[in-house]
Amino acid sequence: MESNQTILITGGAGFIGSHVVRLFVTKYPNYQIVNLDKLTYAGNLENLTDIEKSPNYTFEHGDITDAIYIDSLFKKYDFDGVIHLAAESHVDRSITNPMEFVMTNVIGTANLLNAAKTAWDCSMKTPDRNGEKRFYHVSTDEVYGELHNPDEFFLETTSYDPRSPYSASKASSDHFVRAYYNTYKLPVVISNCSNNYGPNHFPEKLIPLMINNIMHNRPLPVYGKGENVRDWLFVKDHARAIDEIYHNGRNGETYNIGGFNEWKNIDLVHLLCKIMDEKLDRPEGTSVKLITYVTDRAGHDLRYAIDANKLMKELGWEPSLQFEEGLTQTVEWYLANKEWLQNVTSGDYTKYYDKMYK
Ligand code: NAD
Ligand code: TYD
Predict the structure, then answer these.
(1) In whole angstroms, what is the distance from residue 11 CA to residue 196 CA?
(2) Above 70 in pLDDT, residue 130?
(3) 123: pLDDT confidence band, cut at 50, 70 and 90?
(4) With the C-alpha atoms ordered 263, 265, 269, 272, is the resulting torsion angle positive or negative?
(5) Reading across the β-sheet that carries 262-264, which strands appear in turn?
(6) Catalytic site residue 141?
(7) Distance 203 CA to ligand 2 centre (A)
(8) Residue 192 domain-assigned (yes or no)
(9) I need a labelling partner for 318 at 20 to 30 A (CA). Which of 205, 219, 236, 309 fits?
């Protein structure tokens, strides 16, 4: 691949995208990084203030559902690669407003595929030539459905069985990406990652929502009995895996990304309460009293668990942090960035929270 490439990163103002943008801008000063983001409620340029003035970074405000705009962006820049993260990403929102997920996650991805196919003139070139380009689609483990048997893990070969509007929209986008590889030889690669956590995570998701509520002595809403299991990975480790796969992954392949780090929700919330009590100098046991069991999520997937052996063996990636260490760093970040939290939880967030939980 070129040593001076121009890469389009979509969704770079969001949680994971901002960590990927920062990694690429700082690690590859010869690359030009173009961050395209619509700045929905989840997109926040405050996530990138430390690198926004870097000479190899450009922000483009736009919507991936707008095909004409996306085509014009591919004409304005001669992209060598795309790392596509822009999405509607919250399962609960997909239950109340599924069409938004169809538009951004399915149509938006198809628009990007079409623009790349045209710009890279794929069907006219040999697969080798196309191999100099790269379309990287960032997906989720939720496309595989849910697991019941504790010995089972999601493999790259596991059949898709999406069960929420969010995971159905991501599964659909994955299918389009593979179809463009098979049909037009678009040089694609896909990764499916487990649940991320870390700094800049929007406080509608479990971990930052609980941290925010503990800080403000608000009830901690645990869905159902808190028995559902998720596999958690520190966001910077996901960004490192994306870097590795973007540069060294094989065309047409899928790589699962995960930390072999499964937690029942209720156990995770207990651990978080313990860390928060320590950090806030509250007597141990204070925050646990805030736990409140609430009505379960509709169609709530029981367990996700990723087998990341392919990525580890083929590309030598492994997670850098133990969970307790990562969670402690995350708590410290939120306590040190109360203004960030305050800014993202004013306005629309309050309306969303009241609708969801009251
Ligand atoms: P996020 O919701 O924090 O950020 C999404 C970003 O996309 C935001 O900046 C938003 O403004 C932007 N965006 C949304 N709609 C857009 C549109 N129509 N046009 C342009 N930009 C738009 O999401 P995240 O948690 O950072 O997830 C990023 C990607 O990683 C998603 O594709 C998601 O499916 C995937 N993923 C997330 C997780 C996780 O645990 N968060 C795990 C695995 C995979
Ligand atoms: P979430 O962070 O929304 O991620 P996902 O649904 O994509 O895995 O939720 C993680 C787990 O936490 C999931 O099992 C739902 C549960 N949960 C709660 O119990 N309470 C909450 O307020 C939220 C947001 C999630």
Answers:
(1) 15
(2) no
(3) low
(4) positive
(5) 195-197, 229-234, 262-264
(6) yes
(7) 11
(8) yes
(9) 205
**Is residue 128 over pLDDT 80?**
no
35 located within any domain: yes
10 forms beta bridges with 36, 84
Q: How much is the average pLDDT of 111-127?
A: 82
Give the ligand with the smallest distance to the CA of 93.
2
Digit-coded pLDDT (tens) for 136-165? 999 999 999 999 999 999 999 999 999 999
Closest ligand 2 atom to residue 206 Cα is 2
The residue assigned the tokens 């997909």 is 94
Q: Which of 119-133, 150-164, 220-234, 320-334 has the lowest mean pLDDT?
A: 119-133
Q: Tell me which of 146, 265, 354 to substitute to probe ligand 2's pocket, judged by most ligand atoms within 8 Å of the beta carbon.
A: 265
Contacts with 240 (C-beta within 8 Å, 6 or more apart), sequence order: 23, 317, 320
Could you tell me whether strands 229-234 and 262-264 are parallel, antiparallel, or unpaired per DSSP bridges? antiparallel
The token duo for 92 is 């609960």
Query: Which numbered ligand comes closest to the C-alpha of 170?
Result: 1
H helix runs in the chain, sequence order: 15-27, 67-76, 91-96, 98-101, 109-119, 127-130, 165-184, 206-215, 235-248, 265-279, 309-315, 323-336, 338-344, 348-357
Q: How many domains does the chain have?
A: 1
Q: Is there a domain that residue 164 lies in?
A: yes
- DSSP secondary structure letter of residue 106: I
Residue 33: give the domain boundaries. Answer: 6-201+234-262+301-323
User: Within its chain, how far is the Cα of 325 from the centroid?
Assistant: 21
Q: Whose CA is nearest to atom 10 of ligand 1?
A: 43
Q: Report the CATH number at residue 306.
A: 3.40.50.720
